[in-house]
């Protein structure tokens, strides 16, 4: 399914030719147009909305909205029109034989990336940039990247001995290979279970590989399992350097074993706590519950762009103005990080 996502929306411009894209005269009134400034992807204020390309997104009730085409097609050729965003991402893509499950999975990924990015900003980037600014102002070079230690206010350590059955089986596979991932629960405003699994591996005496996996779901056990599975995927692809949306600093070998990152912090371990979610992903109520939890925190606009595929699968991209971005294809800083550093 991930191969379908990437060949449809990220790796190929052929899908752009099949898409319904257009330009419009402005100003437009009402909520039908979601402007570049509504999103956390860093937009270019000098680009006029009437000059950019637009495409459509459909909400859970079937209402159609217009979104900047670059959100759906990150690599849209510049000759087709100016690109309103300085940063683009692969966030919120999902493919599945079921349109419902494609929508569910895409929205869960957006929630996951928002929560992880927010944790990064609060516990790491904001403090680091402030200290770096002070160091530059006074003309000193403290080598902050080597000595900086993240806060861990938003992370809850999970004891591996308390994992549910399937997660225990996954964790045991790591242990059998001599690896011992750390597991954290990332509490958030949506009360949607989000977990992180991290690993530092000594490749040779002078090189280390550090990577993380994340997962979100209404069921806590499933979110945990997804984080462990993504960690395995990230580890393998980082080891081979094969992900285009993992920039070089993320997947390169480290010369010093990392210790200061929040996802490697030594925190008090808690037992895994299952939750009482009874909804199945195949139930439309599951998607409605996700949309409702976002709306309760002010994210009232949720829609999906649907790509035209050449098979029986559905490929969609979830669009939620205001959710924080992550996994930036170009390796540029996101909006909140840019605002903190300016």
Can you put this structure into words, describing what you see?
By secondary structure, the protein is α+β, with helices and mostly antiparallel strands. Helix content is 35%, strand content 17%. It contains ten helices and ten strands. The strands form two sheets. The chain has a five-stranded antiparallel beta sheet. It starts with a helix and ends with a helix.
Order of helices and strands: HHEEHEHHEHEEEHHEHEEH
**Overall average residue pLDDT:** 81
- Coarse structural class: alpha+beta
Low-confidence stretches: 327-342
Strand content: 15-25%
Radius of gyration: 21 Å
Shape annotation: globular
Q: How many beta-strand segments?
A: 10
Helix count equals 10
Which bin fits the share of residues in helices?
Answer: 25-40%
Strand order of the largest sheet: 2-1-9-10-3
Task: Please describe the biggest sheet, giving its number of strands, its sense, and whether it closes into a barrel.
Answer: 5 strands, antiparallel
For the record, give the distance between the C-alpha atoms at the N and C termini, rounded to a whole number.
39 Å
Write the layout of secondary structure elements.
Blueprint: H1 2-10, H2 14-18, E1 54-59, E2 64-68, H3 69-72, E3 93-96, H4 99-137, H5 144-147, E4 155-158, H6 165-176, E5 182-186, E6 194-204, E7 207-216, H7 220-240, H8 248-251, E8 269-270, H9 284-296, E9 303-307, E10 314-319, H10 335-341
Parallel strand pairs: 4-8
Antiparallel strand pairs: 1-2, 1-9, 3-10, 4-5, 5-6, 6-7, 9-10
Helix pairs in contact: 4-9, 4-10, 6-7
